[in-house]
Amino acid sequence: MAAHDIPGSGQQLGSPTQRRTSVPLDERRRMRHESRTSQTYKAFLKYLCDVGKLPSEQAAEDAAVSVLCVLEQRLVGEEDKDLEAQLPMKLRELMIRCDRHEAGPPPQKFGRAEMMSMVAEDLDMEPEDTEPIIRAVFSAIQAQISTGESDDIAGELPPDLRDLWARPA
């Protein structure tokens, strides 16, 4: 097949499927991956804003990081790593920088009241006001992970926390 001039461009067109660009293939792939990652994360935050009635993406992000960090403190074994592996990349990156992850506390046994208190402290609010936020984050998380992973997490929680997990917003 002969190449044809592209009118007014000074370039030649090769095969119909061939793309002419100065951006290397690896860089284009990285850019597409970054775009998909960003879109997934934005959709996660939008869902959290809508369901949790949070006023901004920043509030949604703060809530997600707090609730996930507290949840991971409750999970034992490799379950926290299994959960993180299924979350949006940008959320995983935020959690790695979370103070609780920096300190690396061992898993603890606690229930609903303690979870609500820890989240309330992080978000500077009253513990009784955190339940809708925790439920919204749990709902957003469950939309991102497999049913099997959700069941595994539920199996590690005490009944009062399992109720929050099983009946998200």
What profile does the largest beta sheet have? Answer: 2 strands, antiparallel
In terms of quaternary structure, the protein is single chain
Proportion in β-strands: under 5%
Along the chain, the helix and strand elements come as EEHHHHHHHHH
3D shape? globular
**Helicity range:** 55-70%
- Backbone structural class: mainly alpha
Q: Determine Rg (CA atoms, Å).
A: 22 Å
Mean pLDDT, as a whole number?
Answer: 81
Catalogue the unreliable spans.
4-9
CATH superfamily label: Uncharacterized conserved protein DUF2267
**Number of β-strand runs:** 2
Query: Termini, distance in Å?
Result: 59 Å
Number of domains: 1
CATH topology: Globin-like
The CATH C-level name is Mainly Alpha
Region (Disordered): 1-36
Biased composition (Polar residues): 9-21
Protein name: DUF2267 domain-containing protein
